[in-house]
Amino acid sequence: MNSNTFRAPVRRTAAAATVVALAVGPVLLAAPAAQATDGERREGRATAAVLRTGLDVSLLDETVKVPVRASLNEVKAPESESETALSVKVRGAEGGEPVDILTADVATSTATVDERKAEGYVNLAKARVHVPGLPSLAIVEVEKVTSKAVCETGKKPVAESNVLGHVRALGKKVTLTAGGRTELDVPAVGRITLDLSRTHTTSRTAAATALELDVEVDPLDLGVAKVKGTVTLAEATCETPDGPAPTEKPTEKPTEKPTEKPTEKPAEQPSEQPSPQPTEPKGDGGIKTNNGGSTPTQNLAETGGSSTTPYIAGGALALVLAGGGALALTRFRSRARG
Fold it and tell me: If we measure between CA atoms, which residue out of 110, 129, 193, 123 comes closest to residue 161?
């Protein structure tokens, strides 16, 4: 009894805790993942470009200025895109003649975006970059350069760029330092500053540039006064998408009742109600006893009695009463005589 008395409250507490857990569970499951603060889901973005130029060409003692804005294999996504053109020409900067700004054996750019990842990639090999006024001399030659920017949902953005093999600037071989800057000055030709393997990342974006050139060329007796600006090789960028939308809208509030309600009283607790009485025997016609049974309807053989036992007992009782009455009458008569 003591064991049941102390055990029941503990079981009731455990049952109550189960109800609370089942009620709170749907609330926790209903909490949606954090999204953009403006309430709209942001798509991923990616760009890739083999070449991009921003040059200003000044002709005839700067009396004529020609901007040179060119790009090669510049692609953008949400939609997947890929370009593999191997050269780009510009006109009007050198007496009306076309100028090959870039030629290459391999020039590939790819930009892809899906629900979980945005990626930009550039691969450039055996590339030569020219500017107006220097038709026979490349301002830079590279063996191979690559850039990659990857932005994947739930991961830190990654930006990588590599310059492999030799690099020549204005016909001279230069030694580049990763992440550093190299300056090259060639008398009577010009000056070039090279930035190698520039990368930048934030919590949602990444950008990689294999090679960026700051160009200032002023050749003598070549018919071009001045060329100034920037040339970018192998540039890739990306922005992380928010990820796929949930398949179903979560419930705003938990269900009124838990999916599984525990019993009000533990099964181990003794029942407060007495156990039901046994069913009454059918067809015996016996007398019910305290223990729920019944007396047999037939005489018991173990007692040694028979059907004449009541009559014998009644006769014996009558004889005893008659004997007693006779004895009393005799005593009364004796007293009367005396």
Answer: 123
Question: Between vectors from CA 84 to CA 81 and to CA 86, what angle results, nearest 5°?
Answer: 150
Sequence letter at residue 165: G
325-338 pLDDT per residue, tens: 777 777 777 777 75
What are the CA-CA distances from residue 194 to residues 50, 75, 175, 179, 213 (Å)? 16, 24, 10, 10, 5
Contact 168, 141 (CB under 8 A): yes
Q: Phi first, then psi: what are they for 116, rounded to 5°? A: -110, -20
SS3 322: helix
Q: State how far the Cα of 245 lies from the Cα of 183, in Å rounded to an integer.
A: 49
- Alpha-helical (H) ranges within the chain are 2-30, 309-337
pLDDT in tens, 64-107: 788 889 999 999 998 788 999 999 988 877 766 788 899 999 99
pTM: 0.60
Tokens of 268: 């181990």
Residue 293's alpha-carbon distances to 250, 276, 282, 287, 298, in angstroms, are 63, 14, 12, 8, 15
Give the tens place of pLDDT for each residue, 271-283: 455 555 544 444 4
User: Counting beta carbons within 10 angstroms of the beta carbon of residue 112, is it exposed (0 to 12), middle (13 to 18) or buried (19 or more)?
Assistant: buried
Distance between CA atoms of 118 and 125, rounded to whole angstroms?
24
Question: Strand 106-113 and strand 140-152: pairing?
Answer: unpaired
8 A C-beta contact, residue 187 and residue 111: no
- What pLDDT is stored for residue 268 in this prediction? 53
pLDDT band at 57 (very low <50, low <70, confident <90, very high): confident
Q: Please give the average per-residue pLDDT across 296-306, as a whole number.
A: 47
Q: How far apart are CA 210 and CA 197, in angstroms?
A: 4
